[in-house]
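ok here's Moesin/ezrin/radixin homolog 2, seq below lol
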Amino acid sequence: MSPFGSKKNRSLSVRVSTFDSELEFKLEPRASGQDLFDLVCRTIGLRESWYFGLQYVDTRSNVSWLKMDKRVRDQRVELHANNNVYVFSFYAKFFPENVSEELIQEITQHLFFLQVKQSILSMDIYCRPEASVLLASYAVHVQYGPYDYESYKDGMLAGGELLPKGVTDQYQMTPEMWEVRIKTWYMDHEPMTRDEVELEYLKIAQDLDMYGVNYFPITNKNKTKLWLGVTAVGLNIYDERDKLTPKTTFQWNEIRHVSFDDKKFTIRLVDAKVSNFIFYSQDLHINKMILDLCKGNHDLYMRRRKPDTMEIQQMKAQAKEEKQRRQIERKKFMREKKLREKAEHERYELEKSLEHLQNEMRIASDALRRSEETKELYFEKSRVNEEQMQLTECKANHFKTEMDRLRERQMKIEREKHDLEKKIRDADFYVHQLTVENDKREAETEKLRKELICAKMAEREATARLLNFLNSGRKSSTDSLLTASSVSHAANTASSMAAISTPSLTTSSSTNDMETAGGAELTTTHSSHYLAQGDNSSGISDDFEPKEFILTDNEMEQITNEMERNHLEYLRKSKKQVQNQLQTLRSEIAPHKIEENQSNLDILSEAQIKAGENKYSTLKKLKSGSTKARVAFFEEL
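and the structure came out like this:
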């Protein structure tokens, strides 16, 4: 009876989460962990199942791996509180030594790609900033395909989670600045399929120091706190403050047996002359996980060094055939694409030529239309010019008549001016005569005034004499009468002189009035002359589908070999170029670094770069010593 039969009242509800999907199953209560794991692998089409496992959180809140030989319900899996569902996560439990040589299926590469990318973004795997940008460009390539300048839009990458938070916090750079640098790498990638890009991503990621390492806190006999790193090639020992550079290492081919007793973990080495390698963990649960990972990694390590089984050989052959088929299809597609692009280019050139000819025809038609319009315009202008000439002749005749009239008027004005000047001269002469006469009369008046004064004095004298005479006894009456008549004669003479001076003043005023009237007449005459000239000036006018190819087996093999050679040559040349570009990017973003935001791993990584060390050179140096010396070094830490 199948363990996946359905009895609804007894079945187990199971939910399995992968990095890109969620699966739900119904299991019988007696179903084992292996039954569930096989069901998941069949569902997603995975055959390289030995790298993966089902992870869960137990009732004590510890992270554990599902045991394949036990029933699911017997492994203390914590049920979901709402609907009593067993929840598992499908993760890679073991990692290959070399992804390009060991990973066979595309689904396997894809699952590793998703898990490693998530580990880098969550900072479970430390990645340098410049390497993070490079890996982000490959992740973008996986998501959007090869770079296409027509479909790419600025800001398309700024909103996604492409870089670890520790990298973005470490530099004072905006998302747009990071996008520019990711885009630069993205544009440089050659066109590749999704599985090829994911493989390139993993080949770069496997060189990271923390890739494929499971860390566990341990102590040695001196109670020194250390980290134990379980990897695909062996066990590494790290300082408590440094997870990047191991202090010492032991490969799986040096280890014979692994066991634990409570918190004490004992590793028996192949060299019988070397004492056991002993360390202590915090609790029993950690020892169980360490033992499980050690056994699995040791088995895979030894398996890689043996001839492939029939199953793996079959998988590799199928994968190779599939890869060759895809390469041939891709080659065919590229040839068809080139032909299509050539045809599109030719069509574009023909359309461009047609458009050019149409433009020339349109220009010629416009020129002809403009010529006709110009001809009509010239005819119209000729007619207008004739009318203008006639009008001009009429105006010229009118102007001639007007000029004659103005000339006659000017002559009349000249005559009037001459007459006026004569009158002015006569008036001046008359005024002069009047002035002379006035001067004479003023002299006579002065003379009469003096005579009047003399008369008054004579009168006073006569009065005085009269008084004397009266006082003396009244002289003769005849003398007094003579005196009175002389006084009366003097008074009459003064009155007549005053009457003569007044008409002279009146005459002078009349002369001035005549001068003013003459000036007004002159002004009026000249103003009329200017107005006539203005009328003369105002009258002047002014003139204006691909073919299908069938390839033989030999051609297919040649195409495959050529593509492999080209790819290897590209990798060989691009590796050094990538290192140079990483160094350039590191120099570009260095000025934006915020030193206070650097983590301990950042500082350790910079020291590693300055020392010229990397993951492989460090392990090579550590393996150079004897096993006994490394065990002694560990015990003395």
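fwiw Residues 102 and 304 are 9 Å apart (CA to CA). kinda neat tbh
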